[in-house]
Amino acid sequence: MSKDIKILQCYRTFYPESQGGLEHAILEMASNTPSSEVLTLSEKPGTYFVGKRKVLVTANKRWFSVASCCVGFGLLLSLRRHRAQLLHLHFPWPFGDIAYLLAGRSRPLVITYQSDIVRQRFLGILYRPLMHRFLKRADRIVATSQNYVDSSDVLKNYQDKVEVIPLGISEGEYPSPSQETLLSHESHCGRDFMLFVGVLRYYKGLEYLIRAAAQQPYKVVIAGKGPESLRLKQLAKKLGADNVIFLGYVSDEDKIALLQLCRAVVFPSHLRSEAFGISLVEGLMCGKPLISCEIGTGTSFVNCAGETGLVVEPANYLALREAMGEFWTNPSKARAMGKAARLRFDNLFTAKKMAETYKKLYSEVLLERGINING
């Protein structure tokens, strides 16, 4: 694909204001695709660069948010004026749908379908006509796993334009933790703890993780911040789960240090809002065994049951406790699955593999639209 072809990634939140797994995946897509930029909304609008490869980000003012849908009408003007030949939007984001339909100028459209709308059922009914109009306009809809395609009632309507491209990350984008950072976390958390990393949201299943951890001999470290933080801390206190450590937000250096020190990565998400799980991929990258729940999404594609870790029933704290206990009492099994985890990362989830597949897809879409990609 010619370096002159401009790709614009559009999503409701981005670095540095929001640092979740999806934001990281979008940064990887933009970093590894020539002439890619990011368009987003933020409390602090402006133009700036992020990442080691200096991806250009244009952030328009976020006016307000309703049911996790960020709205900022300056985005319409930015989208209309941008010279990108292909737009890559990340679903769900209803205001993004409106923005494309009003200001996309019918440019080629790739949608990465990150998740069904799960929680806002009533609003989802109202949104459905707009959603289908938007999805019908897409040249391609990308799901992050075949698991999600097979279990999504929405995607079943668009089989002719759906492709599967797993999310990937680049090991080189992560800093190596200093000895000082490692020692600091070891003094606070010890070693061989069970680790969760992510935003503390309603669908992450952290209530069940805390219940599973109560009165157990190992520590459980929860790294991240989010709207569920206070409620979860109150629950841990109520249950006497003194072995649960809340670290709050951690940097990438802190994250890698924690991954190196932990026994296993626990990802207890129990609702379909969790479509993939970049934290699971980070666990694979660091050669750690995984514990996740079977929710019919990409989490069970990332974590191959019995090979890279254990997959348990969702919203079942006893099942989570049993899985963590298995890795705690059988460290050799944890190490063996950790080795398999690293192999699965190398085979399926590198940013290079993801970017090459997207570049091929962009080229196909542009050729189908009759746009010259050879400069």
Key terms for this structure?
375 residues, alpha/beta, Rossmann fold, eight-stranded mixed sheet, six-stranded parallel sheet, 14 helices, 16 strands, 41% helix, globular
Produce a short descriptive summary.
This protein is 41% helix and 19% strand. It is an alpha/beta fold and 375 residues long.
What would your notes on this structure say?
The protein is of the alpha/beta class. The protein has 2 domains: 7-170 and 350-368, Rossmann fold, CATH 3.40.50.2000; 176-348, 3-Layer(aba) Sandwich (Rossmann fold), CATH 3.40.50. It has 14 helices and 16 strands. The chain has helices at 21-31, 74-81, 94-103, 121-137, 146-151, 179-189, 206-213, 229-239, 252-261, 278-285, 299-302, 317-329, 331-348, 351-368, and strands at 7-10, 36-42, 46-50, 55-61, 64-66, 69-71, 86-91, 109-113, 140-143, 162-164, 194-197, 220-223, 244-248, 264-267, 290-293, 309-312. It has an 8-stranded mixed sheet with strand order 3-4-2-1-7-8-9-10, sandwiched between helices. Strand 8, helix 4 and strand 9 form a beta-alpha-beta unit. The chain is globular. The termini are close together. The model has no long low-confidence stretch (mean pLDDT 94).
